[in-house]
Amino acid sequence: MKEIRYDQQFSANEWFILSAFVIGALLVILVPRRFDLKTSGVFLMCGVFFGFFFDHTLSVFPVSFYRINDTSEFETMDFISHVVYAPVSYFFFYLYDLFQIKIRNSLMYVLAWSFLSCGFERISEAVGVFHYENGYKILYSFEIYLIVQSLWLLLYWAIKLYGDRRF
Amino acid sequence: MSLFILALMAWVVMIVFGLVPKGFTLTEMVFLYFVITILTISIFTILDVNLRWVPITRDVEGSFAVYICRFIYIPLLVLMAASVLRSHMKAKSRLALISIIILLLCGSDRVYLQFDLLEYAHWNEWISALMYGSFIVIIGWIARWFTGLGEGGRKIT
């Protein structure tokens, strides 16, 4: 497979990822704890998992719809860029729980977060974290956010109802 | 054909996973599934894209077959292995079960090779078995750490 290289320097995309990582981590640490440690662990890992899932299916093969960061290889900064999703998913669950959003309003909550996520992705693309290819557009990501964040709500309710059940 | 075989294998693993007692809570299982999958994806990607030791096919059917293995087959088997590691069975029984799981994981590698889903450029089955064994041990440690985590904070009710 041919290696693609966009940039070789420590530039805007790396600064953006590191800043987002630090700000996200600080926010998670500073806000009053709302869930027990295990649940917090799941809610943090949820974002990382879905980041990996899509960035290693949509951006790899059979068709690569986008590339991440400076090269087509898997780099440390790519890993950190996935970890940045952790605070995103954590605050998705945190605010949902904080505001005690009812099931009938959940789709509106998902819609708001999908717009927010698209905004975040748009900035990421502008600074060079994502490089779209093969006709991929941010509008396609919007649908993915709608689906993924709806799945997150299912996970929230599953953990809430059966989280402590031993299988 | 590869997709059919891999889907069938994954389905059988899912059936077994549903039947056997895991000894984990749902929260623990979800966390471990996330961790195992993230590590599996990272290892596969590094071996394929970065090192080119185990190049993976780029054709559509093969790609989906590989996704099935990355997201269902390997994670569920490793999760079951982690559950065996923290069970109260005798050491010999645990060792036997872990060996069977490693054999199943290595057996799936044989299937990928058979269908040209991947090739061993700088790799062989022994390294594969060693990698799966180490992976299970690491996940066993993570499982032990995570299940022992304190209950600080509020439960969602």
Can you put this structure into words, describing what you see?
The complex is a heterodimer of chains A (167) and B (157). Chain A is mostly helical. Chain A has one domain. Chain A has six helices and two strands, in the order H-H-E-H-H-H-E-H. Chain A has helices spanning 12-30, 37-55, 76-83, 85-98, 106-127, 138-162, and strands spanning 66-68, 130-132. In chain A, helix 1 packs parallel to helix 4. Chain B has helices at residues 2-19, 26-50, 60-85, 91-114, 125-147. Chain B has one domain. Chain B is mainly α. The N and C termini of chain B lie far apart (47 Å). In chain B, helix 1 packs parallel to helix 3 (60-85) and helix 3 (60-85) runs antiparallel to helix 4. The A-B interface holds A 1, 33-42, 45-46, 48-49, 52-53, 56-57, 60-62, 72-74, 79, 82, 97, 155-156, 158-160, 162-167 and B 21-31, 34-35, 37-38, 41-42, 45-46, 49-50, 52, 55-56, 58-60, 63, 67, 71, 146, 149-157.
